[in-house]
Amino acid sequence: MTEAEALWSAALADREFRNRVDLLHADGVPDLSAFARKNLEELKQQNRDAAFELYEDGYGMFSREFGLMVRLGFFVHDGVCYQMALPDVLTPQTIRQAAIGLCAVGEDWDNDVFVLTPERHLHMGRKSDAEAWQSRRRAMGRFAVINA
Question: Structure pTM?
Answer without folding.
Answer: 0.78
